[in-house]
Amino acid sequence: xxxxxxxxxIPLFPLxxxxxxxxxxxxxxxxxxxxHTIALIGSGLAWLWGWAAVLQWYLTEDHTKSYVVKxxxxxxxxxxxxxxxxxxxxxxSASYQIDPISAVMVxxxxxxxxxxxxxxxxxxxxEDDRAYSRYFSYLNLFMFAMLTLILGANLPVLFVGWEGVxxxxxxxxxxxxxxxxxxxxxxxxxxxxxxxxxxxxxAIFFTFEYFGTLDFVKLSEIMSAHxxxxxxxxxxxxxxxxxxxxxxxxxxxxPLYVWLPDAMAGxxxxxxxxxxxxxxxxxxxxxxxxxxxxxxxxxxxLGVAIVGGFTAFYAATIGLVQNDIKKVLAYSTVxxxxxxxxxxxxxxxxAGLFHVVTHAFFKACLFLGSGxxxxxxSGNQDMRTMxxxxxxxxxxxxxxxxxxLAIAGIPPFAGFVSKDAILGKAFEAGFxxxxxxxxxxxxxxxxxxxxxxxxxxxxxxxxxxTFHGEFRGTEEEKHHLHESPWTMTLPLQVLAILxxxxxxxxxxxxQLFHKEGWSFIDGxxxxxxxxxxEHGEHAISFGLEWGLVVLSVLVACGGIFVAWSMYKKDxxxxxxxxxAERFPRAYQLLLNKYWVDEIYDVxxxxxxxxxxxxxxxxDARVVDGVVNGTRHLTVGTSFVSGIFDLRVVDGIVNLVxxxxxxxxxxxxxxxxxxxxxxAMVMVFGAALLLxxxxxxx
Amino acid sequence: METQYAYLLNIICYLPLAGAVMLLFIxxxxxxxxxxxxxxxxxxxxxxxxxxxxxxxPEGAEFQFVTKVDWIPSIGVQYxxxxxxxxxxxxxxxxxxxxxxxxxxxxxxxxxxxxxxxxLLLLQVGMLGVFCSLDFVLxxxxxxxxxxxxxxxIGVWGGPQKLYAAIKFFLYTLVGSVLMLVGILALxxxxxxxxxxxxxxxxxxAATFAVPSLYAIAPQIPASLQFWIFLAFFVGFAIxxxxxxxxxxxxxxxxxxxxxxSVILAGVLLKMGTYGFIRxxxxxxxxxxxxxxxxIGVMAIIAIIYGALVAMAQKDMKKLVAYSSVSHMGxxxxxxxxxxxxxxxxxxxxxxxxxxxxxxxxxxxxxxYERRHxxxxxxxxxxxxxxxxxxxxxxxITLSSIGLPTLNGFVGEFFILIGAFAHKWWWALFAASxxxxxxxxxxxxxxxxxxxxxxxxxxxxxxxxxxxxxxxxIPLIIMAFWIGLYPKPFFRIMEPTVNRLIHRxxxxxxxxxxxxxxxxxxxxxxxxxxxxxxxxxxx
Amino acid sequence: MISATHYLILSLxxxxxxxxxxxxxxxxxxxxxxLELIFNAVNLNLIAFSYQLGDLSGQILAIFVITVAxxxxxxxxxxxxxxxxxxxxxxxxxxHEMEG
Lengths: 697, 539, 100
Known about the structure:
With 697 residues, chain A is mainly alpha-helical.
């Protein structure tokens, strides 16, 4: 049996799980054990089938090509006119494909997804039965949507998954819907994502109108044709930028990042799965998937890099001062996503995707660890009232520390390998003056490097505030502190191991040791990247390469050291406090996230509502006013015409009547009422007529 | 023309009439019998209409199941019934929604039940007649027949301002239909003897009101005459759609009408306008259509955005849904006047989608209204906790309404947008913003009604849906998923209609698609279209 | 030989008698009988001309007139009965409700 012939089964398993949980278990209130068993089976089968399919495909098929499985024809729109003047049939099939990019994604998404399902069993156990089964139903539904997203073989199917994950995100952020702010956060996420979808949809339309197809395989062929750059350069730039708008929404990049920090309102495993490891990387995945557009449209690629670089730095600055443990991780996610975009934007699509994978490991570990902490602290998320948790929950601490080292970029942890690959490529792009935007790329590299220092700082600040020192909460809370059950710690341990070794294993930085081919992921993904394999030669020297590595390690260590001196050495946190007092404006600016939410609220949300109210007034007063005005006018006219009718028209009628009345008074005397009188008149009349007749002839 | 199974259409159309007559003989105290009979008749009508789906042959003649008998031979009026794929879909929608609306009224209507169900059944006769008629006079008769029961449904069983709403509805539609009649007569006289009194020279053909015969002369109609007839038709149909700025009867009528009335109004009556455009305006007046397309497209975009924004400002759930209808029908018009395959297909599909989604939304709003006698959004909040089934249904329908993929709204909107894009690319740019706004107002309403804390003590006792209420919604949810996941059968049925329509416009106006000059000059220089070439190679 | 003229003279006499009866008599029944005389005068005329001209349609018309006269008599008698019931009289001078 060929597992990869039935690719559609991978998303189908969790979908069935979601349906059973949502329609039967939830409605009947059938208990938690059944609910999580079904969910685990659903996601577990997806994991097993996914890995089996990937492995089998890798071993038996040509893994430089896409293998497409068509399930059925979804939409058929007939022959459509194209921009170029020709026609093409708009046939969209529900097809799935497996190729190196989706193979990488499927491998880690199914695996991490399963781990987080397992973790949720422990984390959500205190929910009531219905909420519990609802939760697992949503989580399985998310797996379906995410797998559809990464396995889809054309843009519309990708869009199905894209919207599907958005929906699940909406549902899971608003999981505690009795709390108004949770529901609001969910809605915000959905609507901000919709703004991105707007760009995505337009990109789909442009793609079809230029190329007459939406299939990735065909698009890739068109774009790798000989004269493609000259012919399609402009179109590719346009489409690339529109796709970037979509990616900005989904992957929480400037300016559409605002929903992600709010999204932490959802349960923590959700934050780990959706808002750190998988869904938010969908934007990066899409950019990598459509790398042929970016390859031909250098301006679009620069756009990706600019968005990524600035977000990486900007979000890190906000992360410096946040006190909510999940908020810190949220901004760190935004920042890390920025690195992935930076990677894609400098043409290092493989490195970007590599960082997606390693980020999934360490960020999922961090979120799950924070969930474990929150669990222990009875739902408290404020780091100022934590501290010293290392004693109470050693497993959580050690796994958390491993993941923190990874994100901070300490070799040989996973985050170091992938982040350094991105920064190296960014530097290289500047150095080789890629597409003539060398200066811009240098600036972005510097931003990335600065962001790395900030990352190391705020992550260790988090670790020190949470796990070191003395516990700062109440005695009662202290009494509660405990290590989490195995369902929660097992995923943590697995993810921690992956955070340590995952990077080195799948993406060994061979260029540092003159072993270019040792990076499995680079070689694996290369066939998918249009034009990348053309200049495989390294432009920067061996020494410079090492210099960059040393620089970024030094920067990371510097960040850690500052965090240590501010938050570990001095348990009263006097330095940061005095800093906050000395620079109140800067501190408030960062603490309030640059007031971007407030600005957006005034600029867009309130403006939109104002406009809506205004138009509603317009509708009620003016448009309907015209109608009602016509009515009043008609009524008024009819009143006037009523008077006219009464006096003039009726007057004439009455006049005629009066004349008739008077005249008839004269004639009525003729009517005597005697029948025989009439008969006599008639006879004499007839006689008279006869007489006249005879006389005249 | 295929006359096979001609009796089918007549049965479908007149069965509700027979039911209404039978209802008259039941004692009005015997409410149970009245409900049973009305529901049974509607159910049989739906079942009888199902064979159309299977018996209609897309590859066959344009009009099938044809009945054609002389009616008033002196002026060429015929009793002419027949359907193509487009009207088959709408007939099925009508019988389905007719059944659901009757079934949903059991507890909502508590006075004058007998008259109520008689009117509902009569309304169904009118609607089905409109979709079956292929003779203009017959069409016009049914068109007017439809008005009267609706007028009474709003005026007798409506809300506090029912009389105002009913009269507004009646006058608006009457103005439209009178102008439409003028247009019909102009076409009739042009085809036959002409009307020398106003300088209209006729073609001298045999006098007829039959639509297929008039299709044949469409290319000969002079542009100036087309313009005036188009204008007359436009007002008539645009009021019915309703297009901005003729829409203000809609919110009033919807809000005041009883639930079933709103369902029928949104689900079927609004489709009369778009049906009229596709059946008459586009094929009969191709030249005027092509010339007007630009303007109507802009009006449709205004309707999309304007309707969405006004919906956002509403505090009354029913009014919100009513304004969302304005927005959705704007999509239908936009796709239609894109005048290409995807646009028209999307437009026709979106008519069904709107019937399903908005019909279901009105049903759902009606359900809480029945419990609380209040439709204000602010009165609710947090009811997802006590009405989980209701919340789930409402969510699914909300998502279908905002066009989430795998649900019906997406397929329609996607095709409409891609069609609009292929026609004039900036159309899609503006129209797509309606999708963002749609998500905003629907989810905002959903949040305010279902999420948050259950603060209002009046809501504490709300009961979740009972079985009957669930069964009024479930068919629509199934439809929503079916169209969203596997719309192919629908496209198969509507395909010949769309093909013929485009062909007719092409014959009359050979190059009717606007040339799009887009930033990338190289695209135009390209000699062969790679997509096209490859698609052929694949086959 | 009796010529058409004789018939016409008889007919004229009958007509005159009938007209005088209709105009002068007070009794409704007599008036009705006088009317019959007028009818018969006309019938006589018709038959006479029919015989003279050899055209049967005159005779057919006469039969038609007889039929109509029968109907007329029935209605007339009916009116008389109604009048008798209402007024207890058959004197036409006493009936002048329609006086203007």
